[in-house]
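Q: What structure does this chain adopt?
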Amino acid sequence: MVGTTTSDWDPESYDSMPLPHLKWGDRVLASLNPTPTDLVLDAGCGTGRDTAKVLDIVTGGGVVALDRSESMLKALKKKLGNDHRLEVVMADLNSELSLNYQCDAAFSVAALHWVKDHQTAFSNLFRMLRPGGRLVFDCGGRGNIASIESVLAELQVSPDVWNFAGVPETKENLSKSGFTDITVSLIEDTIYIEDRNVFEKYISTVVLPFHLDQMRAEEKKAFLREVLERLPSQQIDYVRLFASAEKPSN
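A:
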């Protein structure tokens, strides 16, 4: 992932979950439509789920896989091996980066809501694209996991690890970063996890890992139990922010 939390992920547990991210990644890549010779940036690559899909496409190109999580990048390298078309970069999109890439395309799946400063992130992505390069991304948007945020508010727990942006500010931030041909939308995509144990593990591993990481061991179980008891169902009310934009050719 690409935010600035000091905690890190548990890649093995993360990849074991029934992730809707697979569908979100397919939607992003269908829109991006990379060609076999493209150099593609995967921003917030995680364990390389979508990186692997792109490597299958860019047989004569390459992928720059960027993430701030050391544990995720370690899992990616283990999964994908030493592919000469792959460059792995540990970096935080919240900070101004001086990475000298001229990528043909860039994408991000389920990562940018962990980034507090979208303006800086978009400016970084803009600089890493060649003129005419295209950006497509998915992340949590305005209204995402509202039922969980409501429970956190009841428990007086700050949800400030997330940045669930709306359409107007996303268009503005992309435009200020230099992008044109901007399209942004919000897509409701609620999921239901039938198995109670899987649901509990999903909430702790995918949704609330950084909240739990800030607690003492004896507090974690009680907090998670309280959250689960207060949620109205085993649904997760995802709202996806889906956007595409282009770096002008001149």
